Amino acid sequence: MVDVETVLIVEDEEKLATILAKYLSASGFESHVVMDGADVMTAFEKYKPSMVLLDIMLPNVDGITLCKQIRAQSQVPIIMTTAKVEEIDRLIGLEVGADDYVCKPYSPREVVARVKAIMRRVNYIAEQSQEALHGLEVDEQTFMAKFNNESISLTHVEFLLLKAMYVHPGRIFSRDKLMDHIYSDDRIVSDRTVDSHIKKLRKKLQSIAPEANFIHSIYGAGYKFEPI
């Protein structure tokens, strides 16, 4: 029996939530609807969804806060939905850890297409977790990166930086978000520290893959990993 992927729809407009649930069901997804922000984390723990569609404007607890709460315990894909134009810059910068965003009003077909695209990427990475991702292999046991039979050793911080981006290709990570991945003690670290580690990591990757550019700088937002 094939496991059905579950989408948690967090949307306080009942009619819209019902439509999304029907479209997702027609595409082979199971869905659960939550309309109150205060109930989201309980539902998240109960249903353990494969994906979260998360509206920003919610009663009691807003979507930005919920996204941060989910990210504190899970890397499950999150698509934010918003009718607030002023929130777009924050979402694009991924300051809250979202994978994608959709502006209201939107087409349910577009939302389903976004869900499918992200889930294909996530499932592919899961299948390849112990194998090379487009030629680059990352070994968590030895802190080694390998490309075309060439290997390099990484420091602990360099490995954590690479791993954070490697398992989510295409996602833009702000410097603050990367700091959260490499330092778990809430220390104060400047953006330049992250930039310095990224520079050293790039140099090492280029030593084994001179024609590749795995780590991309996104002006005003941060960094992302793109497999070749």
Strands side by side in the biggest sheet: 2-1-3-4-5
**Strands, total number:** 10
Largest sheet: 5 strands, parallel
What would CATH call the architecture of the largest domain? 3-Layer(aba) Sandwich
CATH fold annotation of the largest domain: Rossmann fold
Gyration radius from CA atoms, angstroms:
19 Å
CATH H-level superfamily title of the largest domain: Response regulator
Order of helices and strands: EHEHEHEHEHEEEHHHEE
Q: What is the typical, i.e. mean, pLDDT? A: 82
By DSSP (H or I, 4+ residues per run), the number of helices equals 8
Low-confidence stretches: 129-133
For the record, the CATH class of the largest domain is: Alpha Beta
Modified residues (4-aspartylphosphate): 55
Domain OmpR/PhoB-type: 128-227
Domain Response regulatory: 6-119
GO biological process, one term: regulation of DNA-templated transcription
Short précis:
By secondary structure, the protein is of the alpha/beta class. The protein is 40% helix and 19% strand. The chain has 2 domains: 6-131, Rossmann fold, CATH 3.40.50.2300; 134-225, Winged helix-like DNA-binding domain superfamily/Winged helix DNA-binding domain (Arc Repressor Mutant, subunit A, Orthogonal Bundle).
